[in-house]
Amino acid sequence: MAPPAAADTSKKKAAPPVDVAKYPHASEPPLPEAYFSPIVTIEFGPKSKFVVHKGLLEYYSGYFRAALKESWAQGTDKIVHLPKEYAIPFEIFHHWIRSHCTSALLKDGKIPLSLSTILKTWVWRRSTYTGAL
């Protein structure tokens, strides 16, 4: 009986990671205070609500920065009412501001969003002055 072949113990060196330039429109992460700011409710009709830290909304969106000023009712009440057709785009935005990632929305390498939802999200992002998403 022949002796077992010796296992190859030499490890191949991995290539160094590629140096990717930073996305030009990427923003720096918000200060920790944004995560401890007052809670704001975003409502899309009676059944769809999101609660978000005011500091995060103001940091990532010019629309919410303006809407949540104390001189407006939304800023005083801490409740923003939006049309229900923007509930899904806001859900995607809400996920992104918490995780800085949209890849968690992917299933088995396929995008689980319809083209219509992707376009609504893009239009909503542009209309609310929301940064890169």
Automatic annotation (TrEMBL):
Domain of life: Eukaryota
Annotated region described as Disordered, given as residue ranges: 1-27
Name by which UniProt lists this protein: BTB domain-containing protein
